[in-house]
Amino acid sequence: MFSNLSSRDWTMFLIFSGVVLAAPVLFQPIGAAYPAILQKFCIFGLFAIGFNILFGLTGYLSFGHAAFLGVGSYAAVWSFKLFTMNVVPAVILAIIFAGFFAAVIGFISLRRSGIYFSIITLAFAQMSYNLAYSVLTPLTNGETGLQLSLNDPRVIDHMFIEPGAGLPRTNFFGIDVSGGGLSGFYFTAVLLIIGFYISMRIFRSPFGLQLKAIKSNQNRMRYTGYNTRPYLIAAFVISGVYAGLAGALMACTDPLAGAERMQWTASGEVVLMTILGGVGTLVGPVIGAAVIKYFENIFSSFNDNTLNQFYSFLPEPVREAFVTVSGLFVGEGWSLTLGVVFMLIVIFLPGGIMEGVRRIASLFKGGNKGDGNAAVSGHPQAAE
Amino acid sequence: MSKLIINRRGLLKAGAMGGVVLAAPTHFIRNAYAEDMSCNMPTGDTVVFGFNVPQSGPYADEGADELKAYQLAVKHLNGEGDGGALATFSSKALKGNGVLGKKVAYVTGDTQTKSDAARDSAKRMIEKEGAIMITGGSSSGVAVAVQSLCQDMGVIFMAALTHSNDTTGKDKKRYGFRQFFNAYMSGVALGPVLAEAYGKDRRAYHLTADYTWGWTQEESIKNATEAQGWETVNAVRTPLGAGDFSQYLTPVLNSGADVLILNHYGKDMVNSLTQAVQFGMREKQVNGKNFEIVVPLFSELMAEGAGDAIKGIYGTENWNWQLDTAGTKAFVQSYGKEYGAPPSQAAQVAYSQAILYADACERAGTFFAPEVIKALEGFEFDGLGNGKTLYRDSDHQCFHDVLVVQGKENPKDKYDTLEIKKIVPASEVTYDPAIFGGDLGPYDAKTCG
What we know:
The complex is a heterodimer. Chain A is mainly alpha-helical. Chain A has a domain at 7-267. Helices cover 68% and strands 2% of the residues of chain A. Chain A is built from 19 helices and 4 strands. In chain A, 50% of the residues are buried. The model of chain A is unreliable at 369-384 (pLDDT under 50). In chain B, helix 2 (60-77) runs parallel beside helix 11 (345-364). The longest helix of chain B is centred in the N-terminal third of the chain and has 22 residues, at 8-29. By secondary structure, chain B is of the alpha/beta class. Chain B folds into 2 domains: 46-181 and 321-400, Rossmann fold (3-Layer(aba) Sandwich); 184-317, 3-Layer(aba) Sandwich (Rossmann fold). Chain B has helices spanning 8-29, 60-77, 115-128, 140-153, 183-198, 212-227, 246-253, 266-278, 300-306, 326-339, 345-364, 369-376, 426-429, and strands at 46-53, 103-110, 133-136, 156-159, 176-178, 203-209, 231-238, 259-263, 285-286, 289-290, 292-297, 314-317, 380-381, 389-391, 398-399, 402-407, 418-424. Chain B is globular and about 70 Å long. Classes of the chains: A mainly alpha, B alpha/beta.
C-alpha cells in the first residue's frame, strides 16, 4: 500500500517529522521556541498544506479559505461549551462542519474558474465574516469573540466529573492542550505530521495526478473523457477540511473564536504563505507559514530597547542612527519588512523559498541538477 | 547516494520512538507545582512587566499614550526621574528601588485591536519573555479576551482602557483588575446633566460600535436617559474601524430623532463626529429643538483629533489633567516634563495600574499571584489623581469620582479642549455588583509552561 511513495519521500517525511518534533530545541537560537508560537507554526502549516492541495495541484486560487478556518474554530468552541473539554470531539465536529461548508461553497463557486472563481470565494468569505460579525451574534458573539464561560452546560464532562472551580482547560484524555505548555504543541505537531503525510499521499496518488492534469490543461482532460468537476470539488473539500482542522486547533490551544479569523486578510495570508514557501511543493507551505508567523510575532515585539541592546557594540551616535532606521522595520513596522521580503522572493525566486533551496542544492551537486530534486518538490510550478 | 529502505518493522520502531519522544516532555511538565509558586515569579534581579497596547488600528493613539505612561511608571518605580505621583500616593510601600528590591524591566506587544493578535502577543510575553503581569488594552473586546487568557495562565491582568460593563461584570475574572470606570457609571453621571441641558422630552438615536463595549454603553446610556424621560428612536450597530460613517448618519435626520448619541471611541469617534458635523446636524432644528450630539465616553486625544467639531458636546471622563488634586498635579507635571504635553486619561489609567500592581506586590511582600490579588482586593487609596478610590473586592472594579465634561467653546491652546462641568462623587455611581452577574473564579496559582 506504500508503493506510490518512493524512498526519497520517506526520507523527506522522516526529516520533516524530526524537525517538527524537535522544534522546541531547534528554534531556541532564533527565539521562537515558546509553545504559543510553535503551535501557531503547526496550525498555519496545516492551513497552508491544505490550501496547497487546492491551489498547488489544481491551480484554483481560492481567496476565501479563512471562512473554513473560522467555521472550524466556532464548531470547536461550541463543542467545548456544549459537550466536553476533550479536544477529540471538537476536532471531529470542526472537520465535519468545515467539510460540509466547503462542499456547499465549492459546489457553487467551482462552476467558474480563474479570476471568477477567486472572486466568488472571496465574496463567500466576506459574507461569512459579516454574518459572524453581526447577524449571527448569538452564535458567534460578534467582534468580542466566542468564549467559554462557567455556566456552559458541558454535558458529557458533567456526567463524569465534578466541575472544578474556574474554567477548565481543553485536554486530550487528561493531558492539557490549552493553557500554554509543550503538550499543546505536541498535539498540534502530531496532527501536522499526519496532515503532511496525507498531503504527500495525495500528491503521489493517481488522484493527485488528475488534479495536476486539471491545472495543466483542463480542456484536454475533458476531451479524454474525464469529468473534472468531481475532482475539483473533492480537492476543494479536502482543503476546506484542512482549514477547518487548523481552525479547530486554534480553538483547542486557545479556546476563543473571533470573527476576525474569517476576514479577507486572513484568506490573503494563507495565499502569501503558500507562495512564499513555494506553490505546489510539499514542504514549502509549512515553511512559508512559519516565516510569516515568525515575522508577525517576533519582529513586532522588538522595540527601541531591544534594538539598543542589539547595537550596543556601536558608539552612541552611530547606534542612534542605526536604531532609528531599523526601528522602522521592526515593532509596528513588521509588515513592512514582510512586504519587502515577499517582493524579493517573488521577483527573484518565483518558486518561493523551496526554489531557493533547490538552487542551492543544485549548486552543491554541480551538473546533476534537478533530476532527483524534482521528486522532492513535486512539479516545480511558478506561481501563476 | 545511499538509499534509505523502510520496511514495516522499521516503521513500527520509529513510531514507538516517536511515542516516547512525545510522552517525555508532557511527563516533566505536568504536575510540576511547587509550594507558593505562580507563573513567572522572578528569580533574578529584575521583574518583567508586559505592556500590551494597540500600536495599530482605530485605537492606536490611545495605545501610544498608554505606552508612554507605562515607561514613565517604570522610571518612577526604579527611582529615576522625579518620582511623579509616588510622592502623593497614599500607600508608602514603594521605595523607588524597583519592586521588592528587583529592578523593573518591561516588554511590549501590539494588540492590533484584535483579540487573536492581543492574545498571541500576551502569550509571547508570558511564555517567552517571562512577564509576571500583563497590562494594557484599549478595547473592551481585547481586554475581556486577554483577561480570560491571563486567568487561564495564572498571570495578573491590570486592564487599562476598557469601559464595557462586562470587563468587571459578566466576564470578570479573579486575575483581572480595572481602574477605569464603566459604561454604567457614565450613564448615571451623564443622564441628569443631559436632562438639565437639553430637557426631558428628547428623542435619541444611537450609533454604536458593534462589540461588547458598544453594546453595554448603549444599554447603560439608554437606561439612564430613558429614566430622565427620553425616548430611544433607534440604535444602529456599526463595525469597529469603519472609517466612513455617512451611510449610518444619513437615516438619522429622517428618523425624527433630535439627539444623536455616538457610542464610538478613538478614531471611530473622531470620524463619526466630524462627519456628523459636516452633515450640518448641529445647525438643524428637529421637533422645534436644536439637534444635539452626545459622545458618552470622551478623551483628550479624541477631542484633539476632532478639533472644532467637539465644541459644546457633552461626555464623561475617567480623569482629566485639569483636575484639581495633588496626585493629578504631580503626575501631569512629571509627564509634561518627560513628553512635553499633558497626559490623556489613557495615560493616567495606564500609569496608575502599573503603580498599583507594584504597590500591591510590595505590600504583600511577595510576587505570588494569589497574595498580590488579596492585597489589591478591597484596597483603598488616594493620591494617584482620581481622589479617594476603592478597589472593590467583589468585582475588581475601582470606584472613584467620575467627570462630566463638555467640549470648550474658546480653548486657550490645543490641549485645552475639555471643560469639567460636574464631578460626580463615587458614592453616586456605586452599584450593586450582582446586577451584572459573572463569577470571579478561584485564586489558585498556576505555574506556566
